[in-house]
Design goal:
Blueprint (H helix, E strand, L loop, with lengths): L8 H18 L6 E3 L5 E3 H17 L4 E4 L3 E3 L5 E9 L1 H5 L6 E8 L2 E9 L4 E6 L3 E4 L2 E3 L11 E4 L7 H11 L4 E4 L4 H8 L4 E4 L4 H13 L3 E4 L13 E4 L2 H11 L2
Parallel strand pairs: 3-5, 11-12, 11-13
Antiparallel strand pairs: 1-2, 3-4, 5-6, 6-7, 7-8, 8-9, 9-10, 13-15, 14-15
Length: 258
């Protein structure tokens, strides 16, 4: 079993390749859509992609844990856990939008050590490795230097993800920013890592939604926590704030909690 985090990048790439092969086969074709208990849609593509990813992990790192959206947890007491979202943005996927992706996070000792956002339709692969920086298709990327809310570009997936109190907090913050945008699902986190977005604020997320982006953003020099400023993990409450700089993060968090 590989012990070095840098040795895991090829495995993460293999997982993304396998997921893309399954999901792209189904993209923009008629799909059987099932509503899960949390009322989010799941498709044949989601399940096939995660199955393919799990087969690779079973063959290459069988002692590692897995936390996947579609097929549940395995061995979460392992020192290393792979967190998988085969299709983040299922609604985008089933409506033919290209802004869905595959998310892969690696927890090592409970902290995010590697994160990937793979965008199969856009053919962009964003990878961050702790202590080694972040790349898009092999080229280094870094967050912007924005330190002021008044100059920040903020994005979230949709107003529909917020409960009323959380929406009030987000609306208060976002109206103080230079620009706010909606949509994009996981791509907003990639944009933040690449320096074209400065803030992402969301709620109602699951570990497979935020841990892959967290590894990417931290490696790109950004800050990502829950709304109380605590590090993200498997037991976080699903409210996420990601910022380009510590200064911007502190200002945004203060406005959210006002």
């Amino acid at each position: 079993m590989s012990s070095s985090i840098s040795d895991l990048s090829p495995i993460a790439e293999a997982l993304a390749d396998a997921a893309a092969a399954k999901s792209m086969h189904y993209f923009r074709t008629p799909l059987d859509i099932i509503t899960k208990a949390d009322e989010s849609p799941v498709t044949l593509a989601d399940r096939a992609a995660e199955t393919a990813m799990r087969e690779i992990l079973g063959a290459r790192v069988p002692a590692d844990g897995i936390y996947g959206e579609e097929h549940g947890p395995e061995r979460l007491d392992a020192d290393r856990v792979w967190v998988l979202d085969p299709i983040d943005g299922t609604r985008s996927f089933i409506t033919g939008s290209p802004l869905w992706g595959t998310l892969i996070g690696v927890l090592q000792g409970g902290r995010v050590a590697l994160g990937m956002i793979d965008m199969p339709v856009l053919k962009e692969r964003w990878i961050g490795v702790a202590g080694q920086g972040a790349t898009r298709d092999g080229q280094p990327v870094r967050v912007s230097g924005c330190t002021e809310v008044a100059k920040a570009r903020i994005v979230t997936t949709s107003p529909d993800i917020f409960a009323p109190a959380d929406w009030s907090a987000f609306d208060r913050l976002s109206r103080q920013c230079a620009m706010r945008r909606f949509g994009g699902d996981c791509y907003g986190y990639a944009q933040l890592a690449g320096g074209t977005i400065d803030l992402v604020v969301e709620t109602g997320l699951q570990p497979y939604d935020y841990l892959g982006p967290a590894g990417l953003i931290e490696a790109a020099g950004g800050v990502i926590t829950d709304w109380q400023g605590q590090p993200l993990g498997l037991k976080s409450d699903g409210r996420v704030i990601a910022a380009a700089t510590p200064e911007l993060h502190r200002q945004a968090m203060a406005i959210l909690s006002a």
